[in-house]
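can u pls check wat happens w/ zinc ion
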Amino acid sequence: MAMITKIKSNVWRFSFSSFGSYVYLIKLKDKNILIDTGSPENIVELENDLKKLNLSAEDINIVILTHNHWDHIGGITLFLNAEFYASKKDFGENLKDIHKLNIPEFKIIDTPGHSKGGICILYNDILFSGDTLFNRGTIGRTDLPGSSEKEMKESLEKLSKIKYKILCPGHGN
Ligand SMILES: [Zn+2]
């Protein structure tokens, strides 16, 4: 369902009427950051959602992609002023290395399993978990190219040791 959900005073979640990942907006003092961009079908809604928060696509400074699947990267063409960060294991040299992202409040956790270069992002007590971990303990598919059940197990173990209060996954119910 198409909706803007406020998660914290500076964090919002966008969901769309047609299939695509959730998109998260984090407003820091001097930067607007998006996590994932939905699917190509979500582009118009995504732009409208930003507008409702008095932002335009040009106001987004940083886009972080949790992994390289079409339903998460569909909106990347919108963000002409943004720097794109993701794992080199999924994107090669095309984007900036997520481990060089210089935002002290963001902790990047490598979580391969659903894809080779899957990442999660810990921001204070929020864990953005991409397609690694969903609500109610369900997990991402491991039967896709680049997936690995073994790596997924190890990634979930890693996440189980991380302290967070709010899970922000790549998809909902
Ligand atoms: Zn995926």
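The two ends are 10 Å apart (CA to CA).
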